[in-house]
Specification:
By secondary structure, the chain is an alpha+beta fold. Helix content is 25%, strand content 22%. The strands form 3 sheets. The protein has a 6-stranded mixed β-sheet with strand order 3-4-7-6-8-12, sandwiched between helices. It has a 4-stranded mixed β-sheet with strand order 1-13-5-2. The longest helix has 14 residues.
Length: 264
């Protein structure tokens, strides 16, 4: 399979400034893949109904961007949990149920998939520890961000030297939720009211998942930013579960965000 266009991921200025050339990262879009139809572009979702060979080729292209074989692209079976796992040199391609990965091993790219949920990449360049987390509303609320940081600390990272960036995800302008959703968050913390504004639909609200994500990262003691890019309106660059649902399409692709420590 060939394609004239190579993947061209978005990057975080904060991560680039903090890590220099020691750590590579990218928030990949649909650009540079071989899938077609509703999966057009760089669909890396093994859970989608896309042609398996095309998904495998797309994943190979992501790994190649890091100058790594596809066997060194580590992902998990994402289940909207707060769980983070440690990946090391023994990684064998297994995808356990979890929503975050951390490593101190060079030459392994940690990847998380998303199609509206938040992909967060973490790096402690001083102690050479990295992480990647998938945080939808459930993961963000139940602690996947904090658990990723704790797992990184278990490998020698320190909060004061960790930086993190939230990649392309659904914005408040595109995320309408019902009253039971709002009640669940306010039951957890009444101050979360600040992440909701009334929508045009009675009893409903628009939810600011990116703001909650960045606030929880900062409250956990790490420097954090958001790219401020919304997946929902930009069908040329991003897959979106919510857009797929609204368009009554049968399935959707997933984009990947990944990070790796360079081998010395």
């Amino acid at each position: 399979m060939t394609d004239a266009v190579s993947p061209a991921p978005i990057q975080s200025a904060l991560l680039n400034e903090a890590t220099g050339s020691a750590i590579m990262h990218g928030y990949f879009t649909r650009e540079g893949g071989v899938s077609d139809g509703i999966y057009r572009g760089l669909n890396v979702g093994l859970g989608s109904n896309d042609d398996r060979e095309k998904v495998s080729e797309n994943r190979r292209r992501v790994a190649n961007w890091f100058d790594l074989p596809v066997e060194r692209l580590a992902t998990v079976h994402q289940v909207h949990s707060p769980d983070a796992i440690v990946v090391d040199g023994s990684y064998d391609g297994t995808r356990p149920p979890a929503d975050a990965l951390v490593t101190a091993t060079p030459g392994i790219a940690l990847g998380v998939l998303a199609a509206d949920c938040g992909p967060i990449l973490f790096a402690d360049p001083e102690n050479r520890v990295i992480g990647a987390a998938h945080a939808g509303w459930k993961g963000a609320l139940t602690g996947v961000l904090e658990n990723t940081i704790e797992a990184m600390e278990g490998l020698g990272a320190r909060r004061e030297t960790i930086v993190a960036c939230l990649g392309p995800s659904i914005s408040q302008a595109s995320y309408e939720v019902g009253p039971e959703f709002v009640e669940r968050f306010l039951g957890e913390d009444p101050s979360y009211k600040r992440y909701f504004v009334a929508s045009a639909k009675p009893g409903h609200a628009m939810f600011d998942l990116p703001a909650l994500t960045v606030a929880r990262l900062r409250a956990a003691g790490v420097r954090a930013e958001s790219l401020g890019v919304c997946t929902y309106p930009d069908s040329e660059r991003f897959f979106s579960y919510r857009r797929t649902t609204h368009n009554q399409e049968p399935d959707y692709g997933r984009q990947i965000s990944a990070i790796a420590i360079r081998e010395t």
